[in-house]
Amino acid sequence: ILKDQILIFSTTWAECVNHVQLLLERFQRAGQTVNPIKCALEKSETCHLGHIISDKQVKPKVGKVQAVLECPQPHTKVQVQSTLGLTGYYQKFIPHYASIVAPLTDLTKK
């Protein structure tokens, strides 16, 4: 069982305590343990899978945006596919993404 990077969102401290208790009970039933040193409670913002997540928004991590901005111009089909993979991960943050990358997507079909 992979149990790294578990996020629990709660709107109140009491709700958080309840959520954590339920999670710990499930781990216990599965015979799993949790290292309390690796736990972080009551965070208003966290970084998870290249995103910065808060109670107000989800946004891409600055370093990841920079990587997209600095991505070299692709010259081969494999490079185009790589570029689409890199940018596609953040497509929800790019308005009209499908229209923008349509010419590149067409290149991968040939």
Automatic annotation (TrEMBL):
- Tell me which InterPro entries the record gives: DNA/RNA_pol_sf, Rev_trsase/Diguanyl_cyclase, Viral_Replic_Matur_Polypro
The lineage's top-level taxon is Eukaryota
Q: Which PANTHER family match?
A: PEPTIDASE A2 DOMAIN-CONTAINING PROTEIN-RELATED, POL PROTEIN
The entry's protein name is: Reverse transcriptase/retrotransposon-derived protein RNase H-like domain-containing protein
